[in-house]
Amino acid sequence: MDDPYAPARDALAGGGLGGGADDGDAGDAAASDPAILAARLDDNDPLSAFADRYRVPDGVLYMDGNSLGPASDAALASLDRVVDEWRDLLISGWTDADPPWFSVGERLGDALAPLVGADPSEVVVGNSITVNVHTLVGTFLDELLAGNGPERAGFERADGTWDPAVDPAVLVNELDFPSDHYAVRAQLRQRGLDPDETLRVVESRDGRTIDPRDVEGALATHDDVGIVFMPTALYRSGQLFDVSRIAQAAHEAGAYAGFDAAHSAGAVPHEFREAGVDFAVWCTYKYLNAGPGSIGALFVAERHHGLTPALAGWWGHEKATQFEMNTEYTPADSAGAWQIGTPPLLSAAPLEGSVELLREAGIERLRAKSLALTDFLIALVDDRLPEVGVGTPRDHAARGGHVALEHPDAERLSAALTDRGVVVDFRPPNVVRVCPAAPYTSFADVLEVVDGIGAILDSGAHEEYATGGGGVT
Ligand SMILES: Cc1ncc(COP(=O)(O)O)c(C=O)c1O
Ligand SMILES: Nc1c(O)cccc1C(=O)C[C@H](N)C(=O)O
């Protein structure tokens, strides 16, 4: 079969799933009965065998891999190897481990580069998302304040680039993950800029998504935007952004284009280099399945290599001379320069195994399966849960890896589901995020999740749970 997942797409495109064998004629029943359809999709799924290589506990339907991915045999093996190296090699592990710890940032950056469409020199692992937002937004603010920036054709700025007399603004959106705003505001403040003036926030029309025309409109209205910093996918609704369109609009306005790819890296293929992205940040604990608090990752376009990072540190020094301990900083001529201090080896080690599994599965195949899983989920919700809304765009090009289910009692519904082994999370005010991640989720799992939601809502079981828990999920 050319497209093993076509039936899932057809279920959605065809206006919904039928009620099963009792419905209509027997020939169509097989195609429209969700249980039969799920079994067929699972039988045809070329990635189905990968599920056995992840450690999801028995009895758990894990739908929260967009927050914390599960362990895999491969990730645990690469972690175990580094623990053994620490025990056996001690300090010599930096040079004598196989491969040496010293280059872990660059080596894992090389492994991630194909997932985001980058040259290996453009990606490195290090720090965390929030720290990387600080150092990268800070770096490009410094460039603007020094009078550098993408040229804006026909625009009167000193040297045709940035007028250092203009306070550079950073364009973000109101649905961003809050940590990014905190970090950008801090970087503006540290340069004597008032964030209330220079953090420009694109508003959402519907409270769920950001219309790319509003990003373009903000750039047309305000000529002081020096950095456009957007997510590749929104953490709550899962809307996927058109990276290439936003990067182009930023550059046409004379602004740098930066992205937070936390909610797409490892689930959606990217082409950062081709799209002209200037910089990007993401984490490795979500779709990259490298474990809680695992090391962050970043992309800096080759044309910017050689800049001095805002948060410079010895691990970003030119590698050949790093151990000469010169107090004068020479940045590495790669994205490696944005590393700061010693990499946390034990928080990086699982990534080696986990990314190898994704490479084996193939990012394009993972994306095809992910879209089919979310198509199937949305079709089932439409068909079986009339009181639940879908807050995620239905258009494939605008849909990331999870689905935002909207319900007025979302918090209690989320708690009831998790209590029953269907692990989801709640994001205020009314969203249950459901992430059927492609490497380890079956179509039968998706059907079970939807049936689980239906059973809870029908029985009112969620009403026994408290709200306002403010828990960590
Ligand atoms: C989009 C986004 N940005 C930033 C963060 C914060 O990342 P970190 O805590 O790794 O700095 C998260 C998740 O926590 C996120 O989802
Ligand atoms: N980073 C997290 C954490 O340390 C604890 C609990 C959750 C998280 C998350 O990643 C939340 C996530 N960024 C989100 O999309 O909401």
Strand-helix topology:
Blueprint: H1 6-13, H2 26-32, H3 34-44, E1 61-62, H4 73-89, H5 93-96, H6 104-116, E2 123-125, H7 129-145, E3 169-173, H8 178-190, H9 195-198, E4 199-202, H10 212-221, E5 225-231, H11 243-252, E6 256-260, H12 272-275, E7 279-282, E8 297-300, H13 345-361, H14 363-384, E9 389-390, E10 403-406, H15 410-419, E11 422-423, E12 425-427, E13 431-434, H16 443-459
Parallel strand pairs: 1-11, 3-4, 3-5, 5-6, 6-7
Antiparallel strand pairs: 2-8, 7-8, 9-10, 10-13, 12-13
Helix pairs in contact: 1-14, 3-16, 4-13, 6-13, 7-8, 10-11, 14-16
(2S)-2-amino-4-(2-amino-3-hydroxyphenyl)-4-oxobutanoic acid binds at residues 67, 177, 235, 472.
Question: How would you characterize this protein structure?
Answer:
The protein has 473 residues and is α/β, with parallel strands linked by helices. The chain folds into 2 domains: 6-22 and 40-53 and 362-459, Aspartate Aminotransferase, domain 1, CATH 3.90.1150.10; 79-358, Aspartate Aminotransferase, domain 2, CATH 3.40.640.10. The chain is 39% helix and 10% strand. It contains 16 helices and 13 strands. The chain has helices at 6-13, 26-32, 34-44, 73-89, 93-96, 104-116, 129-145, 178-190, 195-198, 212-221, 243-252, 272-275, 345-361, 363-384, 410-419, 443-459, and strands at residues 61-62, 123-125, 169-173, 199-202, 225-231, 256-260, 279-282, 297-300, 389-390, 403-406, 422-423, 425-427, 431-434. The strands form 3 sheets. A 7-stranded mixed β-sheet has the order 2-8-7-6-5-3-4, with helices on both faces. A 4-stranded antiparallel β-sheet has the order 9-10-13-12, with helices on one face. Helix 1 packs parallel to helix 14 and helix 4 (73-89) runs antiparallel to helix 13 (345-361). The two termini are 39 Å apart.
